[in-house]
Every structure is written in C-alpha cells, then in structure tokens.
C-alpha cells in the first residue's frame, strides 16, 4: 500500500512537473503568506482546511509543514488574489490533483452510499427499535 | 540464551492455550466435566505465567540491548533512555503482538480467578479465550517471531521511530490493548452463553466490559492528547483511519454497556446484547488488522508484510464467522421477550443503541469506503473532517439530547412528563450557557453555541441527578459522572474549534509577537544535546507587562540514529486555556518561524475523558466490592450461587 501511494505520488509529481515547472509561481507573482484583509484571510484559511495534503498522513494543507502544502497554499492564495471563487479554486485543484485533494468527499453516484449509510442505519435501527418496543409494550397488557 | 528461553516459553504457552481451549469447551458442554473445568482454570494461570515469561524475556533483551535478536536490533539503540528501551518492546510489530497476547492471558487469568457466572459459563469463556490465544500465538510463532536471531549480531541498533519516543505514546498502546482485548472477555462470555444457554452472562461479564471501556476511553484520550502536543499543529482529532479504528470499538463498547444493563436488570434485548459483544471484539480485531497490516500506511503500521495481513485476515474471518455462526444457530433457542412500556428505561437504552450504532456505522463507512471504492473502480476520494461534521456530528448530537432522560425513566414503566419537568433546571442551565457564549465570546458560531447549550444540558442534568441520589452508594453516581464527562469534553472540543487563534511569524532574536491575549518575546535558539538527539531549542519568554512570566522552550529535534526530525512543542496551560508553541524552520541569519496557538478550553477535552473513565471506575468498584445482586430476574440459580 505504502509503495502504491509512493508510486502514485511520484507519478503525480512527474506528470505535474513538466506542465507546471514551478508550481507556486507558474501563472502569477508570489503572494504574501497572509492577506491583510481579515475576511479574505479567514476565507483562505477555511479553504485551506478543506484541502488534503497529498504527501502527509491525514493533514490538511493548512496544518502541514511540508513543501507540497506550502506550494498549494501559495496556489490557493494566488487564485484568491485573482478573484476566483472558492468553487472555482476547488475545481481547479480537483482537475489537477483529483478528488483525493478534497477533505469532503464529492456527492456523486458512487459516493451516495457513503453519505447515506449512517442515516440508513439510523432509520433501520429506529424501525427495528420501534417494532421491539411495540412488541414489548403489547406484552404488558 | 534469553531468546531461546522466550521462544520456549511461547511454545509452552501455545500448548497450554490449546489445552485451555479443549478442556474449557468440554467443561462447558458437559455438566459433569469437573476435571475439564479445573484443567481450564489452571491452564489459564499457566498461560499467563508462560506468556509473561516470554514478554519478560523480550523486555530483558531490549533493556540489555541484545542486538542478536532482530526485533531489538531493528527497534532499539544503546543510547535510548531506559523508558523508551522498555516501551520499544511494544513499539514494533512483533513485540506489540506479544503484548496483545499478554493482555489476553491476563484477562483469561482474571476470568479464571473470578469465576463469575458459574462454573460452566466460566469454563466456556476460558475455552474461547484459549482458542483466541492459540490463534494469536500461532500468528506470532509463524509470522512475527519476536525472538528471531541475527548472526552476526549488529554492533548497534537501528533505533525507534522518534515519534514513538514519548511518554504519552509509551503508555498509549498498552492502554488501548487493555481495551481491545478486554472486549475479548465479553466476546468469550457471549460465545460461552450461546453454547451453554446461560442467561446470567451479562452480569458475569460486566466487570470485563467496564474494564475494557475504561481502558479504551483512557487509550483514546491519551492518543488524542499525544497527537495534540506532538504533531505540532494543535489538532486533537483528525478522523485519521487509525484513530477511527479505536473509536469504533469504543462506540460499540458504550452501546454494549447500556444494552447489557437492560439485559441484566430486566431481561430485555438478550440476543441483541450477545450480538453487540461479538461486534465489539470483531471491530477490535478489524481495527488491529487495519492498523497493523499496512492497509492504512501510517506511523502505526509496523508491519507491511502481506503474509501477516493474510494471516490476520483469516484469523478475523474465523473468529467473527465462527461467533456469528454460533449466534445464528443458538440465539433462536434463547427465550426472549421482555415486557416493558413504550416509555421506560428499556426504550431509552434501546434508543441509545440505535444512535451509537449509526454513529459507529458512520465511522466504519468513512474509514473503509475510500479503500473499497478505490478497489472497485479506482476512484480516489478522501473522507476528512467535513464528512464527519455532516454525518457523525448530528447523529451524536441527537444522542446527547436524549441522554439526560435515560436515568430519569423507571424500568418497565417511566413517566416522560415527570422526567421532562424535573429537567427544567438543566434546560435553564443550557439556555444560560448558550446566552453567555453569545454575549461574551467572539466570533459567534452556531456550532459553539449549540455545543455549550448541550454541555449545560448534560452537566445540569448530572447535577440534578447527584442531588436526587444524595447518600446513595458511590457506584450509583457512575453513569452521572460518565454523562457529565461527555459535556466537559464537548466544551473543550467546541472552545478549541471555534475560538482558537494562531500566529505564524518569522522572528529574529529580541523581537516580539502577539497571539490572542499573550505577548511573546523570542530570545533566540540554542543547540542542545539530548541523550539520543540534537535539538534546536527556542527560548521564548511569555511577557506579563514588562516582566517575563515564564519561559517556553519548543524544540526541533534531530535523531541521528533514526535519521529523523521531530518537533517538541511547548505548552503553557492555565487549565482553561493553552498557549501552544512549535518551532518552525530556520530562515537563516538567526531568524526562525514560530507557530503559536491559543486554544481556549483545550484541556477540557481530556479532562472530560478522565471524568468519563472515573465514572466507569466507580461502577467497576461497586461491582467488584458488592457482588451480591439486588434483584436478578434473569439469572438462574447457578449464577447466583457462584457469586
């Protein structure tokens, strides 16, 4: 598994490298680490928390100290500075890195079960509980 | 010599486990099998002695840095402090499996020593424990032998992953294993009850369920605390698959404690409680498999060897499949059908189970779905915190809303209106908490306000319950305490999540920075020599007016033996608020990045866990001290006599 992930990462970086020779400054000048406008900064931070650091274990790019995370943070900030919406930025990153970069799994036919399963169990459990209680109550009289 | 002694002890242990399995099961199935039952009891003691000997031998090899033993050579180093030489015993795959079997043997000896629930039930439980012990010993001997020799022995060991060289993490695995494996005792009792047709098992197994639950609670809290101070970004729970693997058994163990209570007190949900006992240990096994096999690669996955993964998978399939087959075969023969009103304690406990089961399903799907989806159509998705915020959080929130009602409804028949009315003061406290949060703290968030209202509701209800039960036995307050602990943890989680402030600043010596209410002065970085690492230690003064209140010393460590870097954070806590510092990278010219977080109420997260565990301990104490049952409609005479 580890080997597979490592391989994929190498593959991703190999594919990304020629297209984006220097990820952070490919299409825009470098942007400062923090925005001076608190609202914009909050928006950037919120967006960063929604993005997975692909080379880390379960960390978002907001938390991670890895160079990859720093690059993606820079990318996010450049796009915000260019006036892109959150959705446009996410779409851009998904196009580049795949759905895996989103902390929130997409809602699409093959993830319906993922989103619904907890509530299906809740519903089914509730139904069984209701029948059990009704039966138990009928024994009381 | 030591290695061979350990190896021999393991072989004897395997033989004894097999004897225990056969004699235990025979003693359970034959009413007259007195000799078999005695044999099972004494082999449980013998098993503990020999597994203990093997474990002691391995520990001796680690302490003495005997690098002719591969496990030691791969995971230890002469320069390591003694504590981490010892914790290194279970800081690797082979040793951790041996620890697992040691804990299993401990529980078997406890089952044999306490003889709860009558001779035949105990014997059956020992038989199943014996089967499990034998399976794990075979696994150790054939795929993960900790006593494997190296010739020639290396001059120096490879060291231990620095992440694991930490007091919190030294204690974390034994604690978690005590929980995981403790559920094996409940599992064994349930299987024995199915074999013997014994109804008193829920009472007999209760202390083991409690021990397992307490240990899991502490283990999870320790793991979360460790992640908080060690990983360097101030998070306490990341919904990482490995964390999830420990949360699932906890959720099921919590459901089991509640359901078994109903089974014990009023004979309700007999088959369901059996199924939960099976499910709890099954999830422990699956958790072990997920973590150890390297399916999820992380710091926990020592073993990335496919034969081991395959062996564990077969073992799990046999254990779970066998137990479920036994359940399908025997459960219909158990007489069930308790009678209780729609509004009653029983119904409340059943609802608790429905919500906990849904919460567990959420974690289960969230953990495994990405693996399955990847295998099925190659789509890679990640299931991160936003998923759980939308699924787990509302389900758990609904559960918490109902918690205060449970203890206020009578067995068989409850009065919902009276319960509701008696909870008005708690409702008042909830409203006060919500308003206080809205009035005092910024930013205002719906989640934090709701969480504080909920905490007020839970803690208020607990206070009311304490007043009502004044003068009762200490164990009567167990549930009260556990429920209040949930409220405490909730406040910590909400406070940290909603109001954390942070600052990331590049500083030169003498420069100041502010974060939240704190002013810090950076006094430069010194190079320090640790026992087995070299550290860059930042000296940061926490200022109070013009004076230095205290010094914080976050470090960046390099472990040459392992060739790895590590952060050592510095935390200044007031008990209600943490100031958290991590040293970032060297920007040259004496300038360093400093990450500072202020986490309001963070300590409450783990304090709440401790309060919950204390609740469990009170209940356990009451059980072991006063074993005479007050009223036991379900347990037959055998069970009562034995107690």
Overview of this structure, please?
The complex is a heterodimer of chains A (141) and B (643). Chain A is mainly α. Chain A contains 5 helices and no strands. The longest helix of chain A is centred in the C-terminal third of the chain and has 29 residues, at 112-140. The termini of chain A are far apart. With 643 residues, chain B is of the alpha+beta class. Chain B folds into 3 domains: 1-165, no CATH class; 170-182 and 194-332 and 341-412, no CATH class; 501-602, Tick-borne Encephalitis virus Glycoprotein, domain 1. In chain B, strands 2, 3, 4, 5, 6 and 7 form a 6-stranded antiparallel sheet that branches. In chain B, strand 4 (534-544) and strand 5 form a beta hairpin. The model of chain B is unreliable at 298-303 and 628-643 (pLDDT under 50). At the A-B interface, helix 5 of A face helix 12 and helix 13 of B.
**DSSP summary: helix tally of chain B:** 20
Q: Helical content of chain A, roughly?
A: 55-70%
Oligomerization state: heterodimer
CATH 4th-level superfamily of the largest domain in chain A: Cytochrome C biogenesis protein
Task: Sketch the topology of chain A as an H/E string, one letter per element.
Answer: HHHHH
Number of domains of chain B: 3
How would you summarize the topology of this molecule?
The complex is a heterodimer of chains A (141) and B (643).
Chain A: H1 2-19, H2 38-49, H3 67-81, H4 86-97, H5 112-140
Chain B: H1 2-29, H2 34-63, H3 70-75, H4 82-87, H5 93-114, H6 119-143, H7 167-196, H8 201-230, H9 241-266, H10 270-292, H11 306-330, H12 345-377, H13 385-390, H14 392-402, H15 416-422, H16 424-440, H17 446-468, H18 478-499, E1 501-507, E2 512-515, E3 518-529, E4 534-544, E5 547-552, E6 555-559, E7 564-568, E8 570-573, E9 577-588, E10 591-600, H19 602-625, H20 637-642
Antiparallel strand pairs in B: 1-10, 2-3, 3-4, 4-5, 4-6, 6-7, 8-9, 9-10
Helix pairs in contact in B: 1-2, 1-6, 2-5, 2-6, 5-6, 5-7, 6-7, 6-11, 7-8, 7-9, 7-10, 8-9, 8-19, 9-10, 9-12, 10-11, 12-14, 16-17, 17-18, 18-19
